[in-house]
Design goal:
Layout (H helix, E strand, L loop, with lengths): L1 H7 L3 E8 L4 E9 L11 E8 L3 E2 L2 H9 L5 E4 L15 E6 L1 E2 L6 E10 L10 E7 L2 E5 L11 E3 L15 E4 L1 E3 L3 E7 L6 H26 L4
Parallel strand pairs: 1-13
Antiparallel strand pairs: 1-2, 2-8, 3-6, 3-10, 4-8, 5-6, 7-8, 9-14, 10-12, 11-12
């Protein structure tokens, strides 16, 4: 019996990656469950992660992706100010549902588009660092009697999958992240450039306003 429990309680492996460049990225999460000798086909796996104020998920973009069955996630809070800068934003909690990886029976993966927020201008660096902690791995085996000796109950008010009406029992899985933290580099402006930016912005505004006014005077019809 001892050998069986040790086999079941192997560490789960978690990997996070940020794809693309700039402000608009894709967060890719991969999980390999540390359960050996048991069928996890009837289980739902999710990654619960907290995004810091410097990065966010667009709820309208997420709704469109979910409508086309391209991803599934729960946002807390579900109302997000996508225009707020980093210093006026708050943390965001995400429950990201994962899909089975066809190349591995115990592997799951999910991708989610994320966006960097604007930061305050910096003194001497053209990049701000946004740190993403390793997510918590949650498992819900509503249709499968899987051994849970090395798992602990997790308070999650969310269904196991889109097919479930009400919440079910989730378990938090002991895991070993490939990297404890993932760092996103967000471009920021330099404070010594603020005067130049203001002058250029003012000149561009005056020029565009003049062109619009000239076009209205030339082609407009006034009664």
């Amino acid at each position: 019996v001892t050998l069986d429990v040790q086999a079941i309680c192997q560490d789960t492996t978690v990997t996070q990656e940020l794809l693309k460049e700039g402000f608009h990225r894709d967060l890719l999460v991969k999980v390999e469950l540390g359960v050996v000798g048991e069928d996890v086909g009837g289980c739902a796996v999710a990654a619960r992660t907290r995004l810091p104020p410097g990065i966010y998920v667009d709820p309208y973009e997420l709704a469109s992706l979910q409508q086309h069955n391209l991803t599934k996630a729960v946002l807390i809070p579900d109302v997000i100010d996508v225009e707020a800068p980093e210093y006026l934003a708050t943390d965001l909690l995400i429950l990201l549902y994962m899909e089975p990886d066809p190349q591995c029976s115990r592997c799951f993966r999910a991708a989610l588009p994320v966006h960097g927020r604007y930061h305050r201008p910096a003194e001497d660096s053209e990049e701000a660092l946004v740190v993403l902690k390793s997510p918590e791995v949650l498992v819900c085996c509503c249709d499968n009697r899987l051994s849970t000796e090395c798992w602990k109950s997790a308070e999650v008010e969310a269904p196991c999958s889109g097919k479930n009406v009400g919440p079910c029992q989730w378990y938090s899985v002991r895991h070993q992240p490939t990297y404890e933290e993932l760092v996103l580099q967000v471009p920021v402006g330099l404070r010594q450039h603020s005067s130049l930016v203001c002058v250029v912005t003012l000149l561009a505004t005056v020029l565009c306003s003049s062109l619009i006014l000239a076009a209205v005077c030339k082609y407009g019809h006034f009664s």
